[in-house]
Structures
1.
Amino acid sequence: MLEDQTASPGEEPGDGAAAAARIPAQAPAVSSGAECGWPDGYPQGYAVVDVETTGLARHDRIVSAAVYRLDARGEVEDHWYSTVNPQRDPGPTWIHGLTSEDLADAPLFTEIADDLATRLDGRVLVAHNAVFDWSMIAREYARARRTPPVRQRLCTIALSKQLSLPLPNHKLESLAAHYGVSQRRAHHALDDARVLAEAFRPSLHLAVQQEVRLPLNACRPLAEWPEGPDVAGAYGDGGGRSFRGVRHGWGPGGPRPYGHGWRRPRKRPACPYPNPGRYEPGGRLVQGMRVAISGDTSVDRELLEDRATEAGLHISSHVSSLTSLLVTNDPGSLTTKVVKAKAHGTPVLDEETFGRLLGDVAPASER
């Protein structure tokens, strides 16, 4: 077990050598790398991450973050934790336990960005449902006009599936129970990161033992995302700590339910054009083509999908034999869409090429 003293909400646990000294080495769950050999292609270090947020939407904010740094074989090197002033209401306080009062004097994200970057630099980001934690981190860095030093991420849900672990579901508590890891404070960022670090290490060694390819996905920082009064204005000018009159879960229009985002979800209209079939490599996009997007994009996913829809394309949430093309910056990944695209022989384009072709989409009548 990894021993650690989890702080109360708003209280920052120790860091550095003193904190690391409180964490004894964990006994290997399977043969160690020295005994069975360690794959040359595996990462040299990991950053096990958990973030708690004001909600689940794209424009929600981080209220606390924790990182456990692990070496190539999953041994803990150190850990770090900080609360974050979200400059708005803290959202579901009944889940993460952080109130407006707890966060009033917490640092802004811009004030912890360097510390967090130091702990992520050169490592694979590991999280349970990693796409969520990474997307929240990527958006915070984008708002701060900074680039996060993360190139790859690993989702422990995907790893558990690859290892065929006999889990009743893919909740963190189920993964923890499988390895006998006790949760002390669920939804506290530091304790969730500790639990995941404990569960990840034996999973990593099992992957080595089974000669499993790790489910690594590329991480791309956001270069373009929607802005306007509903996004930038909601956070103020970034220079102050106030919640801009938003306290205890209340906004200008009344209480904000958990998961409420600053940009209201929109339902896209049905594509009015028939599907002309698959994209022909080297050719033009044609109105009505069914397009699926997988993995990170440098342009905000919702914004990219809006542009495709406005050009007359049909955005699909899955890949099938009817899909005209798949857009991905990580064609070697093991995502469901990429795997299905390979099985169906679906043409694949990267984001840059797709964005360029969006500027000259052929009318449906020309097909």
2.
Amino acid sequence: MSSTKGGGLPPRSGAARGRTTGASGGAGGAAGGNGAAGGAGGSGGRRPANAGGRKKSGAKRFWTILVILLILAVIGIGIYVGMIYQKSKAIGTAGEPVRPADTQPIAMALLGTDFRQETNTNLTDVVMVVAMNPKTDTATVVSLPRDGRFELDGYKVRKVNAYYPKFLSDEKKGGDSAKDEMKKMLGKYFGVSIDYATVVNFNTVKDVVDAVGGVEVNVDQNMCYKTEADGTDIDLQKGLQTLDGKQALGFVRYRHTTNTLTMSGKDLCAGNKTPESSDLDRNKRQQELIASILEKLKSFNAVTKAGSLIDAVAKNMDTDLENKQVMNLVRTYWDIPKENITYKQVTGPWSRKTGFVDMKKDELEAAKQALQDELAGRHQPTTPAAP
């Protein structure tokens, strides 16, 4: 049984990065208000790891790495284990990819929703488009503010986060797939062809952390936010500690202490009022959690735990990626250098009167161009692929 150092992660495909080899490779939001919330080709070669808008800025990097690196890497952990390989089929659909991701560039819409059983909502707190190119070993991630004023011919003006739930409602009434509608709309908006859409929810964070047995983080301040409205219960003390999934989710979501009372008039954080958090504070927490999860994965026991990781991802993700395309992505991108991922965040001033973020035109145009350049192979990598 083949494996690589670091818990069984597979070698990258020799077909990736636009090079040909004779060897065959293996398979690679915030709490606030009232709860709204690839190694080198060949045998086991792995490349060294050379090493505005309103509120949501930190979530972009968080969801991107969580979805692209974590979710796809998780599948790769068990690629050589028969049982795990079968479980990985739970993610993705049947059929053959039209554009294999290990040889051709693709684009995907990534949507992070606030769906939880307690709220039963599907607002997309995170809306991103990711373009990936195996020939240049690069990726570009564009994010839109959830409250961004979205204007496009043929569509009613709404906040960015309101389109997916509208399309989902239409789908349930017999309309087209909500994911297809999002791909079509965002593709027209950015001037690119979007191949896939993946939707994840808050529970992905909680279940993945629990699946790896918790993560160690340094909680930067005391945090208390409790509400009966959606069952949110964040109660953390400052200091280095191991968090379970529920605590980790609270750690990255915390914005401010509870300012509302229960139905009986009780303040659940009475005597434990904690400081507010800035966007920068939440950005740092989200990045720390990502680093802790990825560090845990390096020593992760594929045989005993990979199945639970795949289960955690599968039950919280809805995607139209084919099973084989998922494996292509694993082979190609599971250890893409972070320096080769470009982030383009579209921001703008938020209007208290309208509730909209008026997205900056120069940032939007730069984002469009960056996606188009990525798919055309014009994004030059900071860390070149291994020969």
3.
Amino acid sequence: MSDAVHSHNAHGHGHDHHDDHHEEGAHGSFRSYMIGFVLSVILTAIPFWLVMTGTLADARVTGFIILAFAAVQVVVHMIYFLHMNSRVEGGWSFMAMMLTIVLVVIVLSGSMWVMYHLNANMMPHADMQMDMGSTQEMRLSNEMSDMP
């Protein structure tokens, strides 16, 4: 056998230590996947039950509770299925995720703030509707009087 072609096992690169190249905690076990699955089912079933039974009378409170359960479920998916924690990749993936969350919160809250204020300040009010109606009537009467 030439020097260019050699056995992979001759240099200690066999497949028996394949998992040594990965950082600890990078792969989940069957137990962690099952914990994530059970938590996901519970976090889906509770909001479904709240909506279907009408347990809470106020729709806004129900909506906020559903949003809270959704946020918790996103965290469960990131931890148990995407394996994002502070140990993986020296914590950089976790820091990138935190920056992304901060930017998304800023963009969404800013957008909601702008849309609320545009709605409050730019939408015509009931008294404006009446004024516009009388203005149109005045224009019509002026046009009628200008006719020969």
4.
Amino acid sequence: MAKKKEFIAMLLAGGQGSRLGALTKSVAKPAVSFGGKYRIIDFPLSNCANSHIDTVGVLTQYRPLRLNAYLGTGHAWDMNGRDGGVFILPPYATESGAEWYKGTADAIYQNLDFIDLYDPEYVIILSADQIYRMDYQDMLATHKKHNADLSVAVMQVPWEDASRFGIMTAKETGEIVKFTEKPKNPDSNLASMGIYIFTKSVLKKALMEDAADQNSEHDFGNNIIPKLLAEGKRLFTYEFAGYWKDVGTFGSYHQTSMELLDENPEFDLYDQENPILSNTNSQPPQYIGANGCIRQSIAANGTRIFGTVEHSVLGADAFVGEGAYVKDSVILPGARVEAGAKVVRAILGDGAIVKENSVFGSEDESVAIAVLGNEAVYGVGGNE
């Protein structure tokens, strides 16, 4: 029998990430490279490790192979002890057959047995595709202080952007009185971050009732939160004022990557108090050739630079050939910019190739970020 825990995490990592289509055709969005040496899932997992949560269920679904291999035993995040760990939880067959997860709430419902195994007092539910640092223990302390049934992490957004988010309307005490999904005329600018702490008994009851409702979309935002509000449960906000970005689009992914390159970045990858941990393979060190030049950039291990790189992020084993020029771009692991090629304001997927003397991307900021998908080839013999 597993050791009883006070607090465990459930990490929703099954999304296809269709808005990042060219980068997620063969890999789940949480496994996409970010910041040179990391993958997107490293950020919530590191938050768990830094918050002393040692038991994490990772709910996978879409193309999970690379993500599963990356998570391994959980050793990289110090979660391979005998009393906890990182557990991969795909959909599975039961006596009544097998089904994909039908929504965020259904994904947790299908894994209630895992939660019951540890019999926690509290469960935090996280998304695996956001870049931020948060002390989940501080959020739990706020949850306990309010004797809450559910706490929702929120942050203030500009009023003109509020209609793009799920909005929580709350009293001065933080008690939530209304939730509105993408309201046309918002009465609050407290946007839900999709991070929830439930008292476990409340969560289990709500999920079981939701599963029996054939008209439900089985979604936390659309179904579970409105249901609990209607029942008069104690729902409170946890207001977060730190850095938080959803990197679910090419534009946000590129912008967030570029923000890492500021001299004093708002999100500091080099913060040692709350480090971002990763399961990066051991690669040889970077190599800068005789004519190579790199400025205001991040270059992971294994990169080889024979040309010029400015204000860019290079993943492991990326290659920039002689006379090539890369600026304001994100080059994912194993991608190649061959001799004489120019890549500007672009994202190159894993293993992508820009052939010799080709030009990919544009310095014109009115033009969308150029994206070359995983393993794609641009230039002579590829796609023009």
